[in-house]
Design brief:
Blueprint: E1 8-20, H1 31-59, E2 62-74, E3 78-82, H2 89-96, E4 104-109, E5 113-116, H3 129-139, H4 144-158, H5 173-186, E6 191-194, H6 203-218, E7 222-226, H7 230-236, E8 239-244, E9 247-252, H8 254-267, E10 284-292, E11 298-299, E12 301-303, E13 308-316, E14 320-322, E15 326-333, E16 339-344, E17 355-357, E18 360-366, E19 374-384, E20 387-401, H9 414-417
Parallel strand pairs: 3-7, 3-8, 5-6, 6-7, 12-20
Antiparallel strand pairs: 1-2, 1-4, 8-9, 10-11, 10-13, 13-18, 14-17, 15-16, 15-19, 19-20
Helix pairs in contact: 3-4, 4-5
Length: 428
């Protein structure tokens, strides 16, 4: 804190964090556990020090979650932090919020921090919602009068009025999340750190949170947002920081960094069968996605206005599947992650009592592709009997080429005209 920071809210210099592999992570402790540990800890430390040192020497293997990360965030700036799972995003926020210490380097913070890094971080499960609000406020350095002034607003935003005096260990994950975000965002932090935890909430709550973060940013407060939602990042952030393997790969305007990130993902595209960053119960899994022309011949790319077939392969342990019990949803996104359109089995008529094989292929027929030139991502979402079976973000990509769509020599292009092409006529 002694270093001169000028107008910077956060100054990070050569920040590194090393972890030892094979360590155990424990669950939360009750108040009784905490008091017991305080009394018996010194005796247990003496008896087990030799064992711990022996294990540390035996394990020996380490990895760097962050390595030589340097950047600066101005006061009132909104920074989006993106990157693959394991890139070091959450580790960076934990260091900035003083939850963990860096191995090397330093991070200077100018201002009071409010953080929402994991569901329940900073909450004690044995305390009621009301008590946790005051506890979090005290941790942020707020006076009781300040917390009382914001209390009703926090409870209303979280929508937990009926349960405010119930221990939070009995809350659902959604209730926990709503209260945690409400506390972090409403107790007037000068710097707000938010991790991907918002993805846990439903769509309505996500919109509510994004609206609140936008309001916080407009009030001149500093926001650091980690998310895989490129639409939210592009909407909120003034700059984007891309982390790759614990290092800063790029930092700059959202459009440039997000486009670069998308291009890197394209270059390293893994087959759908091998993707392990998926969610769902796995009752039915998608293992392949390919494209064909109107004659069924495989194609790698397609021109605007041409017919296209998208063939999706699936596997399961079932002998047969009723078509009405299955919903396959393909969402096309542009290079910024913005949704462009969706193709879904539920949008179409299904023959009554139609039965599908337990494993096979589903084909989407597109008579005429009405999209401008772009490399589009395809998110896949598969539901079976009302449950989520398989969900993969950017499971595949579709390259669309420009064409003489209208036959006039004028080629519609995305950067000028947007992603959609609408057939039309004038002067008739």
């Amino acid at each position: 804190m002694n270093r001169a920071m000028g107008d910077a809210a956060i100054h990070v210099e050569k920040l590194s964090k090393r972890y030892r592999l094979g360590g155990r992570r424990g669950g939360y402790k009750t108040l009784r556990d905490t008091l017991t540990d305080a009394l018996t800890g010194p005796f247990r430390a003496l008896s087990s020090a030799a064992n711990r040192n022996g294990r540390a020497r035996a394990t020996g293997e380490t990895f760097w979650a962050l390595k030589d990360v340097s950047f600066e965030v101005g006061k009132g700036e909104v920074i989006g932090i993106i990157g693959r799972n394991g890139a070091g995003k959450s580790t960076l926020l934990k260091i900035l919020s003083r939850i963990t210490e860096p191995t090397e380097g330093y991070a200077d913070i100018c201002g009071r921090i409010g953080s929402l890094l994991e569901v329940g971080t900073g909450f004690h499960p044995e305390l009621a919602g009301r008590e946790n609000i005051y506890l979090n406020g005290a941790i942020l350095g707020m006076r009781r009068a300040e917390i009382e002034h914001k209390f009703d607003e926090i409870v209303a935003f979280a929508e937990v009025e009926k349960f405010i005096d119930t221990p939070v260990k009995h809350y659902s994950s959604g209730m926990y999340l709503r209260l945690a975000f409400a506390v972090a965002a409403h107790l007037d932090p000068e710097i707000l750190l938010v991790d991907e935890v918002l993805a846990v909430g439903d769509a309505a709550f996500q919109r509510k949170c994004l609206g609140k973060m936008s309001a916080v940013a407009q009030q001149g407060r500093t926001v650091l947002l980690v998310s895989h939602d490129m639409t939210a990042i592009a909407h909120l952030a003034s700059r984007v920081l891309l982390l790759e393997k614990g290092q800063v790969a790029r930092i700059g305007p959202p459009e440039e960094v997000i486009a670069y990130y998308a291009s890197q993902q394209s270059a390293e595209q893994v087959s759908l069968r091998e993707r392990n960053d998926r969610t769902g119960d796995g009752v039915i899994r998608l293992h392949a996605l390919r494209y064909c022309d109107e004659n069924g011949q495989p194609v790698e790319q397609i021109a605007s206005g041409e017919p296209l077939k998208i063939v999706v392969g699936y596997t399961s342990q079932l002998e047969s599947i009723k078509a009405e019990e299955l919903v396959l949803y393909l969402r096309l996104t542009d290079s910024m992650g913005h949704p462009v359109t969706a193709l879904a089995t539920s949008f179409c008529q299904v023959a009554e009592n139609k039965v599908l094989p337990g494993s096979g292929e589903l084909t989407c027929h597109i008579p005429r592709l009405l999209l401008t030139e772009e490399t589009y991502g395809i998110d896949t979402w598969l539901s079976f009997r009302g449950g989520l079976s398989d969900y993969v973000l950017r499971a595949a990509e579709l390259k669309v080429l420009a064409s003489n769509f209208f036959g006039t020599g004028h080629f519609p292009v995305k950067r000028k005209h947007g992603p959609a092409i609408i057939p039309h006529q004038w002067f008739e």
